[in-house]
Automatic annotation (TrEMBL):
Residues 10-19 have a biased composition (Polar residues). Residues 65-344 form the AMP-dependent synthetase/ligase domain. Residues 1-22 are annotated as: Disordered. InterPro entries: Adenylate-forming_Reductase (IPR051414), AMP-binding_CS (IPR020845), AMP-dep_synth/lig_dom (IPR000873), ANL_N_sf (IPR042099). This is AMP-dependent synthetase/ligase domain-containing protein. Gene3D superfamilies: N-terminal domain of ligase-like. Signal peptide: none annotated.
Amino acid sequence: MASTYPAPPTQQAVNSSTFMPPPIDGSISTSQTIDFHLANNPTYPIFRFAAGDSSKPAYEDILWRDAGQAIHRAARFAQAHIEASPNSTTPPVVVIFASVELLHYCTLAYGALRAGFVVHFISPRRSPAVIPHLFLKTDVTHVLVDESMQGLTDSVVNELKKEAAAIIPTILEVPPFTDLFIENDPRFDALPAMENVNLDTAALIMNSSGSTSFPKAIYFTHRGLVEWSRALWYGDRDLFGDIMGMQAAYPFYGSANLLLVSAFTSGCICAIRSPFGTPTAITPKGLIEEIIATQTTVLSTAPSILELYGGAPLMKDVGTALSASGVHITTGYGTTEVGTVSKFFSGPQPAAEWDYFELSPQVSSYMKPVEGRPGLFELIIISSPTYQLQVHNTEIDGKPAYATGDILLQHSINPKKYKVVGRTDDQLALSTGVKLNPLPVEVRVKASPLVNSALMFGAGKTKLGILIEPVEPVDDTNPEAVSAFREAIWKTVDDASAINGDDRIAKEMILVTKPSKPFLYTEKGSIRRSSVMELYAEEIEAAYAAGDSL
């Protein structure tokens, strides 16, 4: 297969004598990269996990020889049990529903990919209504299931049986990890070498979060995977030999797969949780212990882990404190539809600017100015020779493009730096003509230990309001309890809304959620804004009516 990409600016594994980077010019696919490592890097580690046994060293490494062979065994399992329909012109689509650790999951997934099938990464934490919809839209043909997910799978199949056009998937039991992973196996039987892969055919399917609409299935081609694997080569660092902390990563999200295929090409080692034993939920304390045991040098994690309690984005004061203490924080930015957009691991920057990022030179972009808001732009990504879009919803100069809907603030001194401050559909346009971004106020209010979440409102009105979901439910039938909570949170709300100048939130415009009507969230923890606004439309209108009568 001829090369299709130019050499990137940042080389990986420079001067390494122990790791040979695979070609990243598009001459081989990601699946073929696995075979490359089996042949060229068999004794180089790709994974590391905490041993959990005081009689052993603190960590154990998994070499490319054993990881690659495990993927081949998973591919043989897939080939033996998965068969394309005689009338189908497309490969089978495989879903994995299993409570297993990342390495077990990814061995199955990349084994199915190596076998020539398409893998649909679906989070089992999706709502019961969403999963059958995604199965139906993508014609899922086979599901690998373990015992813990059998009930979920049965309910999905029962829903599909109600649809006349639905494919009823074949259910297969997940093979144990010990059947796939056999260390230094002298009887290993490798699959035949792969034929050249058409990079423009489907490889995997991801799903949008569903924060603004029903989740959508997004197809990524083999070319898209190759471009993911090149992202690190457009950053500022050579990560060869670094230990990449993936202990808190979920294997069914795009971010985990981006990190994984980046390790395939760079020589960094993925620190994961032990694939042996029963999976348990990660905790901040447990993560710290894993980091120490595996000697992790670079950690990829959600803000909630760093804050202990909270959500994205990382609180400004938490990030600044960590940065000032010598922790190099890299803010990454990307979308499911596009992939990574920011530089993948940038160089050091001032402690107070940790939340800014630079766009990767791998992607082409257009900054659409936000009307009446100097320094604010909607980011639009343009398909280019180095990064071809899998999804597009607009055009720029005749080229396919994707309008992200994300609003970025440009740095006041360095025009190459940006940070995300909101979304186009989140902006509140008051009837007075003032346009406000609710995110900074909401983040500050959510920092209160009394508050679980918060949502500002006021579009088309003369003044702002805020709907607050308490950590401890407040009895909405008890006016005194509601009033007491409002008083307890008032200073926090007043201080937070001070950034809006004259458009501050009045005390009577603080609404408290009802226990019977909790906030609705996406699986990633984002508020479903439009759904919550619809849910509380009556209460919001009543608050404005009461305010107007004063």
